[in-house]
Amino acid sequence: MQVYNQPFIKSFFFRFIIMLLVLSLMIPATASPSAFAAGSIYVNVNYDESGNAKNTKLYNGSTYSGSVGGSWGIYNSLAETDYVTIENAPQREDYSLKIVSNTKNVSTGRNNLGGTEAGNTGIAGKLVFEASVYMNSTTHRREIQFRSLNAPYPATSTTNISALTFNTAGEIRDASNQFLTHYEKNSWYKIKMFIDNSARSITYFLNDQYLGESSLPSVWMNIRHIYLNQYFQSGMQAEWMVDDLKLAEYVSVTGISTSVAQLELPESASTNIVVTALPQNASDQRLLWSTDDPDVATVINGTVHALKEGSTTVNVSTYEGNYSLAVPVAVTKPVPPLGIILPDEISLAVTSKQTLQPVFNPENTTNQGLSWSSNSPAVAIVNAVGEITGISVGSTVITAVSQADPTISAEVTVVVTPYIPVASVAITSPPSQISKYDSLQLIANVEPANATESQLSWVSDHPEIVSVTADGKIQALGVGTATVSANTVNGVGDSVTLEVVAPQPENPEEYDELRQRWKETLIGKDSLDVNDTAVQTIIETNASAAQQYWENMQLSSGGTTLWNDLPASASDSTFINNHYTRLKTMALAYQTKGTSLYHNSGLKDDLLQAMDWMLDNLYTEMGTEFGNWWNWDIGVPNRLADILILMYDELTPEQILRNTASIDHYIGDITSASFTQTGANRSDIMLIQVRMGLVEHNYDRLIQARNGMSELFQYTAAGDGFYEDGSYVQHSTIAYTGSYGEVLIQGIGNLMFLLNGSTWEPIVPEMNNVYRWINEGFAPILYKGQAIDMTRGRAIVRPAADAYYSGRNILAGIARIAVTSPAELSLQLKSLVKYHVEYQLSRGISYYQFPLDLADTIKDWVEDPAIVPATDFQAHYELSGMARSVHRGEDFLFGVSKSSKRIATYELTNGENPKGWYTGDGMTYLYNQDLSQYTGSFWATVNWNRLPGTTVVSRTRNSSNYQYGDGETVPLNSWAGGTTLDTFGVTGMELIQNGTQMQARKSWFTFDNEIVALGAGITSTDNLPVETVIEQRKLKEDNSNRFFVDGEALNGTTAYEEIENPAWAYLEGNVTGSNIGYIFPNHSPIKLTRQIQEGRWSDINLSNPPSATAPTELLQNYFLTMWIDHGNNPADSQYEYMILPNASKQETKEYADSPDVTILANSKTVQAVRENTLNVAGYNFWTDTLTTIDGVTSNKKASVMIRKNPGADTIELSVSDPTLENQGYIELELDAEAAGILGKDDRIEVLQLSPTVKLKINMKDTLGRTLLIKLQTQ
């Protein structure tokens, strides 16, 4: 290597200047306000909306809708020649509106914006109208029209204006018909208009460039209608494409920010200053630029050009609001080159090319231009950018000379070798035909093997039919013919023509076999004993309902409903879903053996006629969704897909396709990016798609459904889905394992069962996550056959679908998965199912209340002695992703339901659960042998203001809303989590109660046979009573439970009683094994009631429409309720109590006299408890300040558990971030010595073992996960 330098000078100074420049680019000029401002959107249509029919001609009377703003009408159309359609647009990848005119002036419009009240409608104020447009000609007139009411209010007339006109001379004209600019055909234009209704003016922009302004008529007040008009010209078809149409409130500029505080540039350099008007969605983003000294530097649209050494200032201001910034600019002399480095030698073949990459010293040399030359151009030449081309065999020297300083240069020796041409390329053994979805690796041989330029370029002439990767792997994407070529740079190559054919399963009967498989899930297998009493009960119940529906169905009434008790509604779509529920009941009766309706021809004829009537009137292929979207996209399609399976043999292919077309209309394209369904909703829709694919014999649909399943098996870290800790969330913020998770596991079980062993069987590695979900997500929340209520969301208020119903559905899903699982996993799942089914059976549930095709299978498992029921395990689960804690002790389960910034307090939707106000505020659940505690009419009669475990401000709450309940949102606290160690756990919640000023810090410590509940920092300024509820327990029907406080019996009913100095209490359970002891360590006064509580299901399950009214029967239960009164406006109040599950009266008294636990701390800084017999302690550190208790110090919010085992000379420690927000570290110090590390999580760093143990734990992205370490003490 040869390098020619000036005397070497370290370029520290120059590097320092560059470092300052880089740092300056990273410093914001000003503190930024909120990135976006709220601005109302009145109309928003992108034409990709799932409810809009695609590639369909729309005429007068048809409508289409946007995501905001309602339906648009179509006017003055003519069949086939003049119409509106939504189709893929040229030069875009999405759908656009297309207006076609041949013989008519076609219009489309959105009427009555702002309401329908006469004389007082429309949208006033300052507005922004945006759209993208594309015209196929410049010889047709096209207009964007607005209509306004005429001032003054109340208006009696209107005015139309052509706000923007594309005329027949290729001109764009404004509302005053003044010329703005020209336009061209076959080009997209982005239009923006600022409409100031008060000032009566419009400002125009095209492709973000200002065009001009125009005035509006003096009577103008608002925008009431929007029209898009296209005028025809005889003999020429006019086409107008429109997309991304939006009418929104004008968002004013409130400030300005810049990417740099100051700037330093060498002479002749340039750079961009990024300046943003605030908020980021401000309507007018125009900026004005200037410099104080244009001789030093100039600026054009934010690009600064440095001219000569000196200082100046770049000034930028907003067009609106006159917000401005000044950026100082220093222009420096250029940095000269000190040296250039090139490689010693390179080699290339004749005709080959290679570009040299010189390295400058210093690296920030200002002028890095070089002049290149070759001392033997006959051997190799070099161009102006350093690209060398080999000419002939030999060697030469290439020289690079600095343009800034010709004394600086470098050389490289270039050796040119002989060019060996490619003689041939042959694609070996290519197929001539492949099926859609197949993939194949093509191999091409290049001869000779040592050819100079043997690199191949693979190309498909129809990549939409066959795609090919850079290494020759092909994928068949569509039916048709494509030619795939492999060529060298010199054009030598080979090609293969591939015919892609429609895929077909190897077994032509596979569609029907799978369809029969699903049919059996509905009506049972042929082996089903219809004479069995339990089976008869089920099928006769269904047949009786079907008979009644049939008799009352009115096919010839010409009305808007088939049943008078299902009246039509224009706002609630539930009645449509209910229609299909009844039709499915009738289809089941028609296909189920053993009833009088089996294959009844009259029923069949009426059922088929009713299906056609539904498509004509209620679930039409062109309809617009209203009310609950779920009815249209999931509820009806689920029922209709089953009806199509059941009635398949009675339907023509045309009838089947007509029904599936309607389903497609509402669900939309599941392969589109706009399809974003997750979790249970996604599994429902994929199962709908599979059933449609089976009745259509549609290979493509089945592939799409299979591929759409893949997302179901993924873990999530936010929003909907399964979390690594076993949590399941739906609706973004609701803990829903026992409801939507129930639907998900059923759906996945059904999909895996239905597609098992088929051509469309899903095979993705993530499928194994399902087994983890069962073990870590479902098993913990199942208790003796039921799904615990704190994971069921609003489903707790459904009287016909209690926790055992949810548990049964979960078990059915698990059973489906067990049927298709590998043997070892299958046995584990069967054991789990058997354990819980036995409890279901003990409650009078029949096997045949499971899906009929599964019933005998599950019965066989239960009766098979080789399948051992799963054991009732002891464990603690912190399900931090959904803010739930589950502690499984010896024959009991204790649960805590919390809320946080991530998890809402409760959910009210469709009138369900309007009183769930406090169910997420630390409500506790105790499950034991009283398996009916939370079933029956518990939720109808419980006092929702005093739920056990909660601390509440006693106040009046609203329960009348049908959607969006009182306080139904995420609270402000981040803390809602804990940690687990072996079978023990500690959890906590910082309570910041929605709608009040009350705050509290609440902890629960769960050991072997006791739960310790602590509260501290209870503070409120609401001037209302604050209570902590210890218990609200449903009692026996005759109220005969014995209850004692400090040995004194308190039986019968008690409207209200205050106990001044209690030490303990004991409640006899409703059944054996359900007694509960209560300990009050600080003897604080408690209050209690023991009385009848009344309620109706209709109180907590509001009905809309009235035909869906929930049961109104007045129900009664006896309850015992205990609470601690903190008084009005408490300041730093506390509570302490313990729960002893299954303890006898004597055991409770003895525990009160000599408790196994010591409360180490109960303050708003730290809460801690030690279980002395277990040598286990738990700690909740509530602040990010250094805090020490019991020899344990933490510098951050943390949940910690420690177990010391003197016999084994070990210390075990668990820690978690209960806020789920710590992206840094928790540092812990233990007042103990250790001799070594027996095991630890990789995230735990041991800083020292002596004289104290110091740990540094990386909590980044742990999402509340428990981290463990085990130390040797000797």
UniProtKB/TrEMBL annotation:
All copies of domain BIG2, residue ranges: 252-328, 335-411, 421-498
InterPro entries given in the database record: Big_2, Chondroitin_lyas, Gal_mutarotase_sf_dom, GH-type_carb-bd, Invasin/intimin_cell_adhesion, Lyase_8, Lyase_8-like_C, Lyase_8_alpha_N
Alphabetical list of Pfam families matching this protein: Big_2, Lyase_8, Lyase_8_C, Lyase_8_N
GO molecular function ontology, one term from the record: carbohydrate binding
Keywords assigned by UniProt, alphabetized: Lyase, Signal
Biological process terms in GO annotation: carbohydrate metabolic process
SUPFAM superfamilies named among the record's database cross-references: Chondroitin AC/alginate lyase, Galactose mutarotase-like, Hyaluronate lyase-like, C-terminal domain, Invasin/intimin cell-adhesion fragments
Signal sequence coordinates: 1-37
Gene3D superfamilies: 2.60.40.1080, 2.70.98.10, Chondroitin AC/alginate lyase, Polysaccharide lyase family 8-like, C-terminal
Entry annotation: catalytic residues: 731, 740, 794
One GO term describing the cellular component: extracellular region
Family: Belongs to the polysaccharide lyase 8 family.
Official protein name in the record: BIG2 domain-containing protein
